[in-house]
Amino acid sequence: MSAELEELYQSIILDHNRRPQNFRVMEDASGHADGLNPLCGDQVTVWIKLDGDRVADVSFQGQGCAISKASASLMTQAVKGKTLAETQAIFDRFHAMVTGQGAEGITGGMKALSGVSKFPLRVKCASLGWHAMKAALDNAAP
Ligand code: ZN
């Protein structure tokens, strides 16, 4: 990765950390789930609202390192408005990227997290919000 690209990715992560998207409690959620990464001290709660088989709204709150917060913020942007099948596909692509299986099909700011795959401890930080999102979907009442 070029130094320029690394700098760009770094700034995307710092920007999402400073100004996370969809960072709020959702009162009328269909489901929610908590995530904890004790290795780093990251905590996250993800709320999800379903409209049929579509993710009508998704939000999160929590505290932790810049990677965990930025990744959760990027997750909300990536899955908002998507169908459950699309959400699963996005989750799978993200998971493949951070576990070093390639960044095929990854678009937008999520690419900023591709470097995480080189740091196993950071993979847990980056994945936290995504796994909480999956858990929130699993326990969502339609
Ligand atoms: Zn962390």
Any descriptors?
Sufe protein. Chain: A; alpha+beta; 4 helices; three-stranded antiparallel sheet; binds zinc ion; 142 residues; single chain
Fold and architecture overview:
By secondary structure, the protein is α+β, with helices and mostly antiparallel strands. Strand 1 (31-37) and strand 2 (42-51) form a beta hairpin. The protein has a three-stranded antiparallel β-sheet, covered by helices on one side. Helix content is 45%, strand content 19%. It has a single domain, classed as Alpha-Beta Complex (Sufe protein. Chain: A). The protein is built from four helices and three strands; from the N terminus they run H-E-E-E-H-H-H. The radius of gyration is 14 Å and the shape is globular. Helix 1 crosses helix 2, helix 2 crosses helix 4 (120-138) and helix 3 packs antiparallel against helix 4. Bound molecules: zinc ion.
Short summary:
The chain has helices at 3-18, 66-79, 84-98, 120-138; strands at 31-37, 42-51, 54-63. The protein is an alpha+beta fold. It has one domain: Sufe protein. Chain: A, CATH 3.90.1010.10.
CATH class: Alpha Beta
Number of separate domains? 1
The largest β sheet comes out as: 3 strands, antiparallel
Straight-line distance between termini: 43 Å
